[in-house]
Recover the amino acids of this structure.
C-alpha cells in the first residue's frame, strides 16, 4: 500500500526493493524543533547564520556542518561523548584533522555528555547542560543554535506490512539480508542505509545496481573493502580500504 496526498493504492510487483534510507538519530532529553535545536535538515534551512552554535557529536555530519558555519563567521563548539573525533577513521589522521579544525577556530569539548537542551521558544536561545565524563562536573551554556548530529537510524518504521521481515542491529531497526540482499521474505530485497554497513549514498547506489543485476540473472557483486569515505570539511578528509 502506498499513499500520497491523502489517497492510497495497492501496487502488485514480482519483486520489491526496500531503499528508504535513514533519519537523524534522536537524543534523550532533547526535542528537535528544526528552529533552534536542529538536525542536519534544519541546519540547511536556517534563516541566518547564528552567532553561537553547539554541535553535539564529532562525527562526519557534525564536523561538516560545523565547518561550514564556522567559515560563515559562527562561533562553533563541538561536544563529543568520546575522547576523539570521527570514530572509524584512522587515529593519526583524526588527531591531525582536529588540530586543523582548532586552528580554524572550532572549539572542542571532549569526553562530555549532553544531559539536556531546551529552547526559549521557537528560534530562541538554547540552554544546554553538559556533564564531564571524568569527574561528573556540570556546566550550563547558552547558544543560539544546537545541532544534534549523533548519528542516523535506518528509516524502517511501518514498512513491514505484516509480512514478518527479519530485523537486526540496535533496536532491531535494520532489515536483515543475505549476501544477495534477500530478506527472509521471498521477493523482498533491501539495500542502503536500512541494512548493515556504512550509511553512504554511493554504497547504496552500488548495492542497488548489484541487487538488480542479481534479479536479472547476472552476477552482481560489491567489494566493500574498496568503498571510499569522505568528510566534506575544509580541507576534506578521505579514507579507503580495510
Amino acid at each position: 500500500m502506498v499513499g500520497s496526498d491523502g489517497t492510497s493504492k495497492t501496487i502488485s510487483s514480482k519483486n520489491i526493493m526496500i531503499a528508504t534510507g535513514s533519519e537523524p538519530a534522536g537524543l534523550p532529553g532533547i526535542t528537535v524543533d528544526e528552529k533552534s535545536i536542529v538536525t542536519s535538515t534544519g541546519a540547511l534551512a536556517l534563516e541566518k547564520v547564528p552567532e553561537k552554535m553547539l554541535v553535539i557529536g564529532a562525527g562526519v555530519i557534525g564536523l561538516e556542518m560545523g565547518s561550514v558555519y564556522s567559515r560563515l563567521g559562527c562561533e562553533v563548539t563541538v561536544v563529543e561523548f568520546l575522547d576523539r573525533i570521527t570514530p572509524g577513521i584512522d587515529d593519526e589522521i583524526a588527531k591531525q584533522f582536529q588540530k586543523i579544525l582548532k586552528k580554524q577556530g572550532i572549539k572542542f569539548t571532549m569526553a562530555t555528555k549532553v544531559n539536556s537542551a531546551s529552547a526559549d521558544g521557537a528560534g530562541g536561545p538554547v540552554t544546554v547542560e553538559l556533564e564531564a565524563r571524568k569527574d561528573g562536573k556540570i556546566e550550563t551554556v547558552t547558544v543560539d543554535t544546537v545541532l544534534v548530529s549523533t548519528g542516523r537510524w535506518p528509516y524502517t518504521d511501518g514498512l513491514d506490512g505484516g509480512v514478518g521481515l527479519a530485523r537486526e542491529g540496535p533496536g532491531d531497526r535494520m532489515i536483515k539480508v543475505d549476501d544477495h540482499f534477500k530478506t527472509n521474505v521471498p521477493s523482498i530485497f533491501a539495500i542502503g542505509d536500512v541494512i548493515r554497513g556504512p550509511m553512504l549514498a554511493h554504497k547504496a547506489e552500488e548495492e542497488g545496481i548489484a541487487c538488480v543485476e542479481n534479479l536479472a540473472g547476472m552476477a552482481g557483486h560489491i567489494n566493500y573493502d574498496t568503498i571510499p569515505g569522505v568528510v566534506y570539511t575544509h580541507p576534506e578528509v578521505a579514507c579507503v580500504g580495510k
